[in-house]
Design brief:
Two copies of one chain form a homodimer. The first copy, chain A, is built from twelve helices and 16 strands. In chain A, helix 4 (about 115-125) packs across helix 5 (about 145-155). Chain A has two domains: about 5-115 and about 285-330, Quinone Oxidoreductase, Chain A, domain 1 (Alpha-Beta Complex), CATH 3.90.180; about 115-260, NAD(P)-binding Rossmann-like Domain (Rossmann fold, 3-Layer(aba) Sandwich). Chain A has helices at about 5-10, 35-45, 110, 115-125, 145-155, 170-175, 190-195, 210-220, 240-245, 260-265, 265-280, 295-305; strands at about 10-15, 25-35, 55, 60-65, 80, 90-95, 135-140, 160-165, 180-185, 205, 225-230, 240, 250-255, 290, 310, 325-330. In chain A, strands 2, 4, 5, 6, 14 and 15 form a six-stranded mixed β-sheet that branches. In chain A, strands 9-8-7-10-11-13 form a six-stranded parallel β-sheet, with helices on both faces.
Chain lengths: ~325, ~325
């Protein structure tokens, strides 16, 4: 049943998956993060629900343990992302090899968080066709995982970021990770920004908050700028000053990583951003790691706040995968 | 000085304009409407201000009284629009002939209102490239001059209109002028519409109100629909539900008739809409007409509400234009 993750989740021992068929690989999961989206899925918030019982978990990283016929772009031992939505909170799974690629050498816990937020940030930056090196991109929710990824990807592309945060203590922290301008979203912020950046171009704004925070981003955009809304942390309607639309010709649109048009672009965004994770340019602080057996503590930790990771260890018995019982966390 | 029109306007006798030079025509003004925009200009609301003293008035219709060298697409006696922003509240003026064309036979008072609202409506309808005959266009402020023009133009193009109004008594009135669906903008309206039109396509929404009224239009749009904001009658920020942007991929943009990109398209929009004025399909009820000498009463009438027209009579002395003192209403 769907409901509170701390109540409805159970740890189950399932049989080992079958050997990979043609075009498939067997993946031994090493690490899998817990995202708020995972908890929403378990709570039944989304209209799209898996049939129960189901393993859950959207992201993860693991090693290729076995390869099916016809797979020649991967070899046993390669570290790969667990494909999105293939339910990562388990030790081993079989997945299609198409779209998988060998990840660079890097902290596997950081790689485990590559699948959603970095490509979201990269593809948000692609939503304006008018960006040139040296241009500014404005964003709010700059301290989120998408926001921090965006700072790193923009810098790698030669763009500057103008970052709105809600707490003053985040200013030095985001400056330290490369935010070119970090400013608390409060009255007078737009004037302060223009005093700092002069008439520099700001063709793209990224809004993850909605409500009045969207209007602030629209306010700093240049003529004909694009405002892209990808999340609604405030829970409020998106608000924009009419004259920013009418006189300044700002265009407002939305972004959704799982839209069919967007999904096609994820593989190239992963290839762009994986090296940034490897270099440490994209790095999400991890609050704690838990084994799958401690899933209740892990979920409670996420609900208190902080990025939490499952240490799955499903690839530790590399090549020794026969007849191992594979525990999996599933919503019954 | 700029200020209250009833106070700062004066009637002035100015010399007759000179004979038209090459490429110019002399126009004898017949009728000139008073728009709220005229009053805003006189009040000094806009950042762009004419140097004073200045004749004012943006729209009008008149007869060609004389033609300069090289003008072969017009003849003396043709009825033409006074070019926008050439200051129409006067008996005679010289204007460039380029862009002018002989208007069809029709009530000249109705033709006097052709210059702004019908092309605005026509060009708003061009803001979606995805409109097909039989599609619906949703609009609010449907009882405005733009809204009524839009109903007629949409019908001529084989489109259906879904019209939001704020007062129940407007429903039969707008149905009578061709509104396919007319509905009071109140809670539950969107559900009622979908019950009526089923899953018919609504690719374009037109918003002249801003505030929550914009969110209502976005709510009735189909997937990937376009919401175009052209005015802000409510004075409130434009509001849109984030999921209409993110999940339904609605794009929000603004429209401004005097934007350089848009201005280029006005002549073709005038040629499309002039026959609709001539046929009576576009018709604005006129509350009263006044001579230029009664400009204070005329302005006061506009401020009370209602469409008011100057009866200028500047073409009545056709061909007898030498040494006539030409009274003009100007902001000193």
């Amino acid at each position: 049943t769907f409901g509170e993750p701390g109540i409805v989740l159970e740890l189950a021992d399932l049989p080992e998956p079958p050997a990979p068929a043609a075009g498939e690989v067997l993946i031994g999961v090493e690490h899998a993060p817990i995202n708020m989206n995972d908890l929403y899925l378990i709570q039944g918030v989304y209209p799209l629900r898996p049939s129960l019982p189901s393993v859950v978990g959207n992201e993860g990283v693991g090693r290729v343990l076995a390869i099916g016929r016809g797979v020649d772009h991967l070899k046993v031992g390669d570290r790969v992302l667990v494909p999105l939505y293939s339910f990562s909170w388990r030790e081993r799974l079989v997945a299609p090899a198409a779209g998988l690629f060998a990840l660079p050498e890097a902290d596997p816990r950081q790689l485990a968080m590559l699948g959603i937020n970095p490509p979201t940030a990269a593809l948000l930056l692609n939503e304006s066709i008018d960006l040139r090196p040296g241009d500014w991109v404005a964003q709010n929710a700059a301290n989120s995982a998408v926001g921090r990824s965006l700072i790193a990807i923009a810098k790698a592309r030669g763009l500057k970021t103008l970052n709105f945060v809600r707490r003053l203590e985040l200013v030095p922290e985001l400056q330290a990770v490369g935010g070119d301008l970090v400013i608390v979203d409060q009255s007078g912020a737009v004037d302060k920004i223009r005093a700092t950046i002069g008439d520099a171009r700001v063709p793209l704004g990224i809004d993850g908050v909605a409500g009045k925070a969207a209007a602030t981003i629209a306010g700093v955009l240049s003529h004909s700028g694009t405002l892209v809304v990808y999340a609604l942390m405030s829970g409020e309607p998106v608000t924009v000053a009419p004259l920013d639309l009418i006189a300044k010709r700002v265009v407002v649109k939305g972004f959704f990583l799982n839209h069919p048009d967007v999904e096609l672009k994820i593989p190239s965004a992963l290839r762009e951003t994986a090296p940034l994770v490897a270099s440490g340019a994209i790095r999400v602080p991890i609050a704690a790691t838990y084994p799958l057996t401690a899933f209740r503590e892990a979920v409670a930790h996420v609900q208190r706040g902080g990025k939490v990771m499952f240490d799955v260890d499903g690839a530790s018995e590399l090549f020794d995968k026969v007849a191992v019982e594979a525990p999996q966390v599933q919503a019954p």
